[in-house]
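Practice problem 4.
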C-alpha cells in the first residue's frame, strides 16, 4: 500500500466508527422513546452528542486503535478494540458522575453503548475477514538492506519474506567475503559501499548481521548511518543460546537476554488470571458441584467401598507438591500413587469409566483452584514419581512448573491427554505447555476453556 493511501484508510476507519456510534445513538433513542424521528428534540442535547464523539475519538488515539491497521494481527486488534470500549465506558461514567449538567437519559446512554459495542465489534471482525485475503497488498513495505551475507543474514531475510506482516522487503546484501551471487544472496557490493547505495535508493533502514569480530566495520557503519539519518539495527548472533523468541531488557547500558517471554510474570496479568480462576470456579461449584457432588457420591459408594474423593500428591508450581482432588474412579488399590491408569485398566469401576470419559472426575479440582493450588487453565500436574522420571529424560520438562497446574490446558485441547508415555507425544505435550507459558493471554484462556467444553460434549478418544 502506498504511503498516501495509509492515511486515507485511517481516516475512513475513524469516520466509519464515528458513524457507528451515532447510528447506535439513534437506535438507542428509538428504543428509549419509541420514536423513529427527532421531532421531540428536548430529549437530545446536541452538545452531549458532540461530547460523546469527542471522547470516543480521543480514547481511540490513546489506545492507538487506528495505527498500523493492516500490519497488526487479529488478536492485538481485538484487544485494542475491547480496550477502547472499556476506556470509553470508564471516561463516560466519570463525566456523567462529575458533570451534573450532563443530564442525558441513563437508559438512552446504556442502549447506545450496548448497541455500539455490538456494531463496533462486528465491524472489526468483518474488517479482519476482509483484510485476511488482501493483507499483503495493503501493507506499506519498507525497503531494507542487510549487511552481512552469512547464515544469520540469510535467516533474517527468510524470516522477513515468510512473515510479510513485518512490512519489510529485503533489496539485497552487502558483504566483503562473497565474490559471486551463486547462492542467490543478491550481493549489492562491499560493506563500504552500503551507505552510498542506500542514500541513492531511498532506503532508510539497515540491518547489520556482521559478527563481533567486525566491530570496527560496525562502528563505522553506525556513525555514517547516523550522519545520513538512516536507521541502523544490529542483529546479535544468539542462535547458539536461544532457538526462539527472547526477552530483551536493558539495565543501564547492559542488554540482558532471557530465553523466553513470560506474560504471567507481569503482576496485572496474574491478578486478571486469579480473578478469572476464582469467579469461574465459584460458578462451577455453585451451579454444578452443588447437585453433582451428592449424586456422584451415592453412585461411587454404591459400586465400590472407599472414599468419594481420591487425593494424590502431584507436582505444583515451582515443583511444590500439593494434594490434587478427584472423584474416585478406581477400586481402592495400593498402586494408585505409582501406576497411572491405562486403557482397559481393570481397577477402573463402571461409574469411574463414565466419569473419566466425560472428565467428571476432574471437577473436584475446582476446589484446588479456589485454594490457589491450581488454575483453571495451565499444564496438567503429574504424580511426583512421574515428574522425577520425565525431568531426567525430557528436555525442558521442569519449565512447565513455572506456572500453576491447570484443570485443562493448551496441550489437552491440542489432543495430548490421557495416559502419559515417555515418547514423542509426551515431548509434544511439554512443548505445548511451554508455548502456553510464553504466549499466555486472557483471550487464550477463554479459547482453551471453550475448546475443552466442546471436547467434553463431543467426547475425546484419549479420555480414560
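Answer key:
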Amino acid at each position: 500500500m502506498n504511503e498516501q493511501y495509509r492515511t486515507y484508510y485511517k481516516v475512513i476507519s475513524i469516520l466509519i466508527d464515528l458513524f457507528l456510534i451515532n447510528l447506535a445513538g439513534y437506535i438507542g433513542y428509538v428504543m428509549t422513546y419509541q420514536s423513529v424521528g427527532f421531532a421531540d428534540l428536548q430529549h437530545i442535547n446536541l452538545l452531549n452528542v458532540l461530547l460523546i464523539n469527542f471522547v470516543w475519538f480521543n480514547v481511540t488515539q490513546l489506545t492507538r486503535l487506528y495505527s498500523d491497521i493492516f500490519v497488526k494481527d487479529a488478536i492485538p486488534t481485538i484487544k485494542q478494540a475491547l480496550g477502547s470500549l472499556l476506556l470509553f465506558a470508564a471516561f463516560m461514567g466519570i463525566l456523567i458522575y462529575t458533570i451534573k449538567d450532563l443530564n442525558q437519559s441513563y437508559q438512552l446512554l446504556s442502549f447506545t453503548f450496548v448497541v455500539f459495542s455490538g456494531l463496533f465489534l462486528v465491524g472489526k471482525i468483518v474488517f479482519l475477514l476482509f483484510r485476511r485475503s488482501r493483507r499483503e497488498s495493503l501493507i506499506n513495505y519498507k525497503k531494507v538492506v542487510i549487511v552481512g551475507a552469512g547464515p544469520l543474514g540469510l535467516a533474517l531475510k527468510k524470516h522477513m519474506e515468510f512473515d510479510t506482516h513485518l512490512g519489510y522487503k529485503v533489496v539485497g546484501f552487502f558483504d566483503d567475503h562473497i565474490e559471486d551471487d551463486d547462492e542467490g544472496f543478491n550481493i549489492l557490493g562491499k560493506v563500504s559501499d552500503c551507505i552510498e547505495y542506500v542514500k541513492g535508493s531511498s532506503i532508510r533502514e539497515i540491518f547489520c548481521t556482521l559478527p563481533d569480530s567486525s566491530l570496527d566495520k560496525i562502528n563505522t557503519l553506525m556513525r555514517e548511518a547516523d550522519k545520513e539519518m538512516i536507521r541502523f539495527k544490529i542483529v546479535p548472533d544468539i542462535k547458539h543460546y536461544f532457538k526462539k523468541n527472547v526477552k530483551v531488557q536493558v539495565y543501564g547500558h547492559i542488554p540482558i537476554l532471557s530465553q523466553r517471554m513470560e506474560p504471567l510474570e507481569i503482576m496485572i496479568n496474574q491478578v486478571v488470571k486469579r480473578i478469572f480462576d476464582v469467579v469461574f470456579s465459584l460458578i462451577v461449584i455453585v451451579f454444578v458441584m452443588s447437585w453433582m457432588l451428592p449424586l456422584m457420591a451415592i453412585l461411587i459408594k454404591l459400586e465400590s467401598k472407599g472414599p468419594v474423593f481420591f487425593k494424590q500428591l502431584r507436582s505444583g508450581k515451582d515443583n511444590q507438591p500439593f494434594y490434587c482432588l478427584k472423584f474416585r474412579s478406581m477400586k481402592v488399590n495400593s498402586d494408585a500413587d505409582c501406576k497411572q491408569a491405562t486403557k482397559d485398566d481393570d481397577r477402573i469401576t463402571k461409574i469411574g469409566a463414565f466419569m473419566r470419559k466425560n472428565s467428571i472426575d476432574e471437577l473436584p479440582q475446582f476446589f484446588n483452584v479456589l485454594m490457589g493450588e491450581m488454575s483453571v487453565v495451565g499444564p496438567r500436574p503429574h504424580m511426583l514419581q512421574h515428574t522425577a522420571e520425565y525431568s531426567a529424560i525430557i528436555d525442558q520438562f521442569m519449565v512447565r512448573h513455572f506456572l500453576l497446574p491447570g484443570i485443562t490446558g493448551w496441550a489437552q485441547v491440542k489432543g495430548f491427554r490421557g495416559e502419559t508415555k515417555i515418547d514423542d507425544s509426551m515431548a509434544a505435550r511439554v512443548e505445548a505447555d511451554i508455548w502456553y507459558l510464553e504466549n499466555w493471554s486472557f483471550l487464550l484462556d477463554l479459547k482453551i476453556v471453550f475448546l475443552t467444553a466442546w471436547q467434553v460434549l463431543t467426547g475425546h478418544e484419549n479420555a480414560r
